[in-house]
Write a structure and sequence with these properties.
heterodimer, A: 118 residues, mainly beta, seven-stranded mixed beta sheet, four-stranded antiparallel beta sheet, 11 strands, globular, B: 113 residues, 12 strands, 51% strand
């Protein structure tokens, strides 16, 4: 099956610094990737849709300048949390769709990145 | 507004008993329906999906789900629960023609020995 990886799996940073999280599709090319944020014991909140070769589409209420998304290739999307603050601490999950799969219905999720901002 | 409801925050089941995790949705048209499972500090794992056809869908790890169009429900079931099934379960819907998944709030399943 399609595999999506994330790096790092866990990161701790100081307030005011920037953190980059990578999402890779390992065995397929993903023209579209998605970034979610999950609070403890809560559902996933879609932050943005990352489109290869074009600007990301952000959900309402998500700060574009705070959460920078770059989809530089068909297998890599990055989320950069700029000037991180403790309230940005969360579990960030990416997913990708495999356009080569029949029906193209399913999203494959990465293992998540735990961000802790001190 | 389009939404997915998982009315139970937690479901408790004894090992060996059948389990049901409920999901209803409010989405126009005939959406794609999904169930995912999440273990602590992990991403989501796909369990099963309904696209069209037979209302009973079989998925991974012995799980199945029943689609009911009139009730707009897609309840997750398993005939005999295992302790290892204890996890967080998410129902999700993708309206046809849209890229995005709409998630329910999640239901924590606790299977007791």
């Amino acid at each position: 099956g399609a595999v999506v990886s994330q790096h790092p799996s866990r990161v701790i940073c100081k307030s005011g610094t920037s953190v980059k999280i990578e999402c890779r599709s390992l065995d397929f090319q993903a023209t579209t990737m998605f970034w979610y944020r999950q609070f403890p014991k809560k559902s996933l909140m879609l932050m943005a849709t990352s489109n290869e070769g074009s600007k990301a589409t952000y959900e309402q209420g998500v700060e574009k300048d705070k959460f920078l998304i770059n989809h530089a290739s068909l297998t890599l999307s990055t989320l950069t949390v700029t000037s991180a603050h403790p309230e940005d601490s969360s579990f960030y999950i990416c997913s990708a769709r495999d356009p080569g799969l029949a029906g193209n219905n399913e999203q494959f999720f990465g293992p998540g990145t735990r961000l802790t901002v001190l | 507004a389009q939404s997915v409801a998982q009315p139970e925050d937690q479901v408790n089941v004894a090992e060996g008993n059948p389990l049901t995790v409920k999901c209803t949705y409010s989405v126009s048209g005939n959406p794609y329906l999904f169930w995912y499972v999440q273990y602590p500090n992990r991403g989501l794992q796909f369990l099963l999906k309904y696209i069209t056809g037979d209302n009973l869908v079989k998925g991974s790890y012995g799980f199945e789900a029943e689609f009911n169009k009139s009730q707009t429900s897609f309840h997750l079931k398993k005939p005999s629960a295992l302790v290892s099934d204890s996890a967080l379960y998410f129902c999700a819907v993708r309206p046809r023609g849209y890229n995005k998944l709409i998630f329910g709030a999640g239901t924590r399943l606790a299977v007791h020995p």
